[in-house]
Design brief:
- It comes from Penstemon davidsonii.
- Belongs to the iron/ascorbate-dependent oxidoreductase family.
- Helices cover about 30% and strands about 25% of the residues.
- It has 8 helices and 16 strands.
- The structure holds N-oxalylglycine and nickel (II) ion.
- N-oxalylglycine binds near residues 194 and 261.
- The site of N-oxalylglycine has 11 residues, from strand 7, strand 9, strand 13 and strand 14.
Length: about 325
Amino acid sequence: MEQFSISKTFFPGVPLIDLSKPESKSQLVKACEDFGFFKVINHGIPTQFITELESEAVKFFSLPISHKEKTGPPDPFGYGSKKIGNNGDVGWVEYLLLNTNTQSDYHKFASIFGEAAEKFRCIVNEYVSRVKKMACEILEMLADGLKIQERNGFSKLLMDEESDSVFRLNHYPPCPTEFGESSKNLIGFGEHTDPQIISVLRSNNTSGLQISLTEGNWISIPPDSNSFFINVGDSLQVMTNGRFKSVRHRVVTNSSKSRLSMIYFGGPPLSEKIAPLPSLIKGEDDSLYKEFTWFEYKKSAFKSRLADNRLGFFEKIAAS
Ligand code: OGA
Ligand code: NI
């Protein structure tokens, strides 16, 4: 495997974790501590559920823009193009944001899909419920690995009926050739960390995803359509009092092929207090973060730019 040596951080390649192996628990903890990013195989999700959703997504993104726009704007759910959020971030991407808990958005799809909207909904639901189950299993293995008494300390937040989780389909069309040289490394999705607890990403075999372990250094992640890539989100970084790292990542457009990715973002209920788990700190004074609820964090993140250090606002200023 290609190896990178980047200033202080040596990156031996994306940690590959076989979920069927007993040693995966400690490997998961290490990957979350070292990088906040890893790839899982033997995840137990049959290919059929993945390819079915992929073909629905391809169908959706191939519709004329006027049709797709009928399912937008993303307020917060629906179709969006180029604009990411409301604070000036743009990228070479179009996307569909879906709520994982209620079915309320689907009337938007009925108008363009007709009866196929129902099928689309079923395929998304099936996929999301499987990926969520896998995310919960990973979170439980992590809790075990951290010797947290409550094995479901993290996963119960995703299992909660009120869990504020989101599902996102991103489509990065091929870069336009008229941009010539400058189309190299055109930004598809600007650098950011994911604010939730955990993100589960699956993409087709087109590259573009990069992670950053030290500022300004980007590592390209080879795509793998048969595996899932997992990101630690900001909330999990806080719940582990900084022991797990919320990984900075972005997508660059770099080929003549389009990239399609689907991401499940597992988040807590809005009213949930995000704070280090008691067993991971000696006392409240040990917490690196001020107290906040997921609602407060989301509100603050919505007001910020993608690249901002959104957690910075909630860090305790070290007393000197
Ligand atoms: C995201 C993200 C990566 C991708 O949507 O938060 O990081 O490959 N996406 O689309
Ligand atoms: Ni992301």
